[in-house]
Structures are given as C-alpha cells and as structure tokens.
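Milestone M4 deliverable, item 7.
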Amino acid sequence: MILEHHAQASKKLSLTTLLTVFLCLGMLVAHAEIDKAKWSEGKALFKSNCAACHNPTADGTGPALKGATARWDGGGSYQGKTGTQWLHVWINNWHDAVNAKYPYAVAMRSSRPAEMNVFAGVLKDADIDNILLYVENSDAFAAPAAAAPAAGGGSAQSGGNAPGASLYIFVLFLIVLVAILIGVTNRLDQIIDEKKGIVTAPKTRFYKKPNFIVAVILVLIVYCGYATVDWGVHLGRQQGYQPDQPIKFSHALHAGTHKIDCQYCHQTAYKGKNSNIPSLNTCMNCHKNVSKGPKYGTEEIAKIYAAVGWDPATKTYANAASAKPVEWVRIHNLPDHVYFNHSQHVNAGKVQCQTCHGPVETMDQVYQYSPLSMGWCINCHRQTEVQFASNNYYSTYEKIHQDLKNKTIDKVTVETIGGTECQKCHY
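Output delivered:
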C-alpha cells in the first residue's frame, strides 16, 4: 500500500515542470552561492592589505590562505569563541589571539616567526568575511582570456566574469540527483505492477523521454539567457585589471611609506580633464640622488636612468641621445562616449583620489579598484554630499543656498545639482 501510494503521488506531478523548476532553481542557487559583489570587494581588500605577504593558493612570506577558515575551525572553540571568530581576532591583531593563548594561534606564531601586520581599525568583520570569501574561492569568477595579450604582461578583462567551477559541479549534481529520483520512481512503478501481476513493456530510458528533453532545453535557454545578459552587463569593465608595467613602481613605497602626495606626480588631476602620467623629469627630482631602492635595489631605477639618458657616475645627462620614453600600460580607461573631468571632482568636488582608485598608498602594483560602471557613478552621485561650505564653485547656486538656510533641505548631493542628468556625462 505504501509503495502504491508513493507511485500514484509521483504520477500526479508534471515531470517536465518539476525538472525545469528544480534545475533552474538549482542554477540560481549556485550563482547566488558566491556573492559576486562581496567576492569582488574581498579581492580588492585582499590585494590592498594582504597580497604583499599572502597568496590564496601558494605559500609566500605567509602561508597560502585557501582553507584557512577550515583550519581555524579545526582548532576548536575557546573562551566562548569559535575557530572562525578567533581567526577574525588574529587578522585584526594577532597579538590578541596569541596573548589569549588560543592554541591554534600560539601554534601559528611558533611556526611562522615573521610578524603579521595589525589591521585593527582598518578592517571590519564584514571586510574580513569578504576577504575570506575571496581567498576560499579565488578562481570562482576567473576573467576570460583576452582576445590579445595586454602590453607589458597582464591581460585585460574585456568581458563578463565566468561562472566558477562550483556552479557546474552543483548543476551536475542536480542532474544526477534528478536522474536517480526518476530511476527510483520507475522502479517503484515496476514493483507495484509486478505485485498486481501486470506485465508491462520495457520502460523507455528517462533521457529519451520527451518531457526530459524539453526540460533540458528549457534549462539551457534559461542559462544561456542569464549568461548573455551577465556578459553584456560586464562588457568592457576591467575591475581588478592589474597589468605588469615596464618599470616596477611601488605606490605603497612612494605614497604610503614616504607620504608623497598624489598630486605631486599627477598634478593635472587638480586642473585638467585628464590626470597625467608623471613625466620622468618628476621622477628625477628625487632619483638624481636616490639610485637604490629598498626592494629592487638599482635594477628598476636604472631603467629610469636609461629612459632619460642619465649617467649616475657623472651625474649628467650624458646618454641623452639614447633616451626613449617609457611605454606605460594604461589601467583605467573609460569608454569614448563618457565625459569625465578630474578637476571637477578633485578641485570643485573635493573628492579624495582613494574614493575611485582605492587605497593606492597600499598597492605595490596598481590595479583598477572600482568597476567605474555607469551604475557605480550614479549611485555615488546620489549618495555623495556636496561640500558647499567655503566652496566658491557653488556660490551661484543661490536657491540651494537659500533652501539650506531655511532648512527646507538638510544636505545637498551631487544628484541635487543635476549630477544624474544624462547630459552631464553624455553630450
């Protein structure tokens, strides 16, 4: 009776509908399994804070980080905190985890005598979660191969992000599971027929049944539609693009350690539409006297000397005849139909460089930190409050100044002064 009840219940379902909904839902769950926005944020944070010592899958100054969450969880709970919570403590300030005598932290300190940077006040718990999400799934959204290699080594991410291997594994698992369920259902039908003495013809293989074929076709249509839209949305975006440059220039050393202001080198960002690539004359202001660096010795600075024809022995431009410009590789590149003015943002808007370019003062090798998409720009214009006080650029906005004075409005965003109008960027 139980077998008969299950078999009859299974026949009431439309197999085509069941398969289509089940597999499509599984695909959506698989895509949502790893949040792309959090993954991208984790990647950016990892590159700016961790990449100098760590790699997700290979040992460096520090150990490979993939599997770190599982390793710390394996250390067990201690003083009311789980292993993952102690990992957060360790990342924020490893001294706290060691001083609390958490066994795994003590073991890590013993096996790795090199001291880790302290990130207390720099990284929030959500930031650490995003970093761990990235290192555990560093290949989840691998960039597709570029049509041609980018100059200087590196590759441009010209299209959308490819789904991770976990997506395909999950979908394959669902297909196998559905196949097993169909086989079990058919076997139940067969057993009941045998109990009743009914002789049935051999059953058609499930993958040859029209409803199964229709379900697979529908799933493929849904997936191809999703992949096409996702690819289209990300077409031309280069977030995370990090090409090798002809001279290894460390922003972490110059802007971070030595606190050189961004606009000392990129001086046209304050007064022009474009931010300039610093001339080698700017480099030579310091490197006439500084011929050896802390990381690469004389190797990279010698390339500057060769490019300008400088002879460090005689302190003259004795080799000027052989000088040739350095072919830097462009990283940030907006489409031609987009108008963007650096001075508008840096001078009038008082926007910090890091708002768009990320924490460049921590980057040994610069990469594109933000997506620089239209949606990203518009959201910034909607949320960013304009600095009206003591800013002569906005003195002509009399009505807005009066509204602020009358407390009709309590703040002014870029959107308030027309920052989301199409013509501002496309005209």
